[in-house]
Amino acid sequence: MRLALLLGAALWAYPLAAQDHSAHESTDQTNSMEQVQTEPASAAMDHCAMGHLPPEQCPPEEEAHDLDAMVDSGAMDPDAMDHSQMGHDEMDHSQHGAQPDKSAPGAAPEEAVPPRATEGPLHAADAFWGEAAMAAAREEVRRMHGGMTTGTIMVERLEARIPTEGGEDGWLWDLQGFYGGDIDKFVLKSEGEGELGGAVEDAEIQALWSHAIGPFFDLQGGVRLDIEPETRSHLVLGVQGLSPYMWEVDLAAFLSDRGDLTARFEGEYDQRITQKLILQPRIELELAAQDIPERGIGAGLTKIEPGLRLRYQFVPEFAPYVGVEYEAKLGETADIARAEGEDAAGWKILFGVRAWF
């Protein structure tokens, strides 16, 4: 009887032991997650207090306490926040003014120059090497980059001139030299011609002071002395330099001690065929403001000499050439030449050399 009662009690308790308790476990987990999600922000890890972030990324201490209080009290609820008391609608944005354009020309710099930028010596190297030593070094740099004094003698033309239609063979020289800097220099010019193997017929020398008036032109002034055919002095004023299209030009006006006013223009261009072979067209014009009978010169355009020279530059300092030139006297000057039995125009073959040192 007792055995039967025990078996019956065991069979009645078995269904209760097999009952599903998974729902209870799910409810506990859900409650735990809700508790974690509703923890205030102040319970989260404070990286600023632990020194994990730089100070500029952390809010001030007072703001941090206020934030914690707002989170704890639920004041961050946007629905409960009363924006009408904040005066957002009353704010006058027109009083703010336009922000300045820092990219506009002449705009003030973003930040002022720090005071330490203007401290110390004018040249920072003076603090290490000494002012005297660096002054000498800066002077040497200036001298090497255009401030040095140099001198050159250029023989532009030294040539024999052979007429193609008879007449006397002649020779000619045209040279100039200078000494000075890139702004101011002393210039010496000389030009003349004569019979080949005979006497000099025309010769002159000029002493000029040359001053740069731009990157490509110099203003020149000085005196000119005619040695042949008769001694005569002149005041000189002119310009010399490199014109557009790479033409080297020399324009000068002369006022003689007898009141005669004349002018001369020379232009030449170097056309490189190769690095050493150079073709040079050249033209020379002479003008007179009045008749000069003793020199066989009439008023107006008195002479024109266009020519072409082909030179071979063995070295930059030495280049022989051959060429041809047409020489013509014009106007009243041509009439005076014909009256004296001379040819007013003609071609000439040229053999010469160009050099400098």
TrEMBL record:
Residues 1-18 form the signal peptide. Residues 23-43, 72-118 are annotated as: Disordered. Residues 80-95 have a biased composition (Basic and acidic residues). Keywords: Signal. It comes from the Bacteria. GO terms for biological process: intracellular copper ion homeostasis. Residues 104-118 have a biased composition (Low complexity). GO terms for cellular component: cell outer membrane. GO terms for molecular function: copper ion binding. Pfam families: CopB. InterPro entries: Cu-R_B_prcur (IPR007939). Residues 28-40 have a biased composition (Polar residues). This is Copper resistance protein B. It comes from Erythrobacter mangrovi. The lineage of its organism: Bacteria, Pseudomonadati, Pseudomonadota, Alphaproteobacteria, Sphingomonadales.
